[in-house]
Design goal:
The protein is α/β, with parallel strands linked by helices. The chain is 55% helix and 10% strand. The strands form two sheets. The protein has a five-stranded mixed beta sheet. Belongs to the thioredoxin family.
Length: 326
């Protein structure tokens, strides 16, 4: 399977909206199945680095990315910088102890994957998290830069998608699927409610999903999965049934109408135009005052929550918002 349906820029889309909740559920189900089959769900350190081809892309990368961030190293035998970078990535994959999985793709043998990812030169390193692909860096990179990038990746994967990585056991048999264990998979106190929210989203019941997330937050106001899920579900409900052409025409023709700008920003974000959504509202903040300005600011903060606080686009937009306000 080729990654033609994947979001190559990490933007918000209908598939990504549910990924945060589904990813954790799928990971727990996979670990539970490993326990039932006599394994503890742990893997050998040798299994943290895998070779992947086009035939195995779906099972080795897309499916695994619902459980752990998958870092992809595009390389070739003739590429000298690759020979310097690849060993560093392999060593760090073991050092990070299951917080990410390293997939190596030989571009000479997998030209289609190289084209699908839009790679112009190697070495090139991407990540896939909960089915969403994003570029990490291209060309030679120092170990300090690589570590900083990986640290940010695993943090975002855990905070936004609930991916805590793989369990690594030095005694596990390489390729054996894990070591024997009688341990049971822990169940969180809100897993049933979060699963109910996912099921509501699957059924198109946005109101039911919103209520399920609110039920979690009533007892645990800081629950990151519920906060993200609620923000995304409310965004989807706001744009449900809108006519995109009319919304954009209203926003273009009524620059002083804050509701028109807010609605257009919602639509921009769902369509993946993250910078456009942020820029539209920041400009509106700059030309409004009082209650109107506050309404726009609050919506902008809600959209920040949807994208994620660690996203570079959010960080840049926060700085721009501060300049517009002060």
């Amino acid at each position: 399977m080729q990654p033609r349906n994947m979001s190559m820029s990490g933007v918000v889309d209908l598939g990504a909206v549910k990924a945060a909740q589904e990813a954790k559920t799928k990971a727990e189900q996979a670990r539970a199945e490993a326990v039932r089959q006599g394994g503890g769900g742990a893997i050998s350190p040798a299994d943290l680095v895998i070779d992947v081809d086009e035939a195995g892309f779906e099972s080795d990368i897309l499916q695994r990315s619902a459980e752990v961030p998958v870092v992809i190293d595009f390389w070739a035998e003739w590429c000298e910088p690759c020979k310097q970078l690849s060993p560093v990535l392999e060593r760090l994959a073991v050092e990070y102890d299951g917080r990410f999985l390293l997939a190596k793709i030989d571009v000479d043998a997998n030209q289609m994957l190289m084209q699908q990812f839009g790679i112009q030169g190697i070495p090139a390193v991407f990540a896939v998290v909960a089915g969403q692909a994003l570029p990490l860096f291209q060309g030679a990179a120092g170990e300090t830069q690589i570590r900083q990038t990986l640290d940010q990746l695993v943090q975002v994967a855990e905070e936004r998608f609930g991916l805590t990585g793989l369990t690594v056991d030095p005694d596990a048999v390489p390729g054996g699927g894990g070591a024997a264990s009688d341990a049971e998979v822990p169940v969180g106190p809100y897993d049933a409610l979060l699963e109910a929210a996912v099921q509501a989203l699957d059924a198109g019941d946005l109101g039911g999903a919103i209520q399920a997330y609110k039920n979690v937050l009533a007892d645990d106001p800081g629950n990151p999965e519920a906060q993200l899920g609620l923000a995304q579900a409310e965004l989807l409900r706001r744009v449900e049934g809108l006519d995109p052409q009319r919304v954009r025409a209203d926003a273009a023709g009524k620059p002083q109408d804050i509701e028109a700008q807010i609605t257009a920003a919602d639509l921009d974000l769902v369509g993946g135009h993250v910078e456009d959504a942020f820029g539209r509202l920041i400009e509106t903040v700059g030309r409004t005052a009082g209650d109107d300005r506050e309404a726009v600011r609050v919506r902008l903060l809600e959209l920040f929550e949807v994208v994620g606080a660690e996203d570079p686009r959010v960080i840049a937009a926060r700085r721009a918002l501060a300049r517009a306000l002060f």
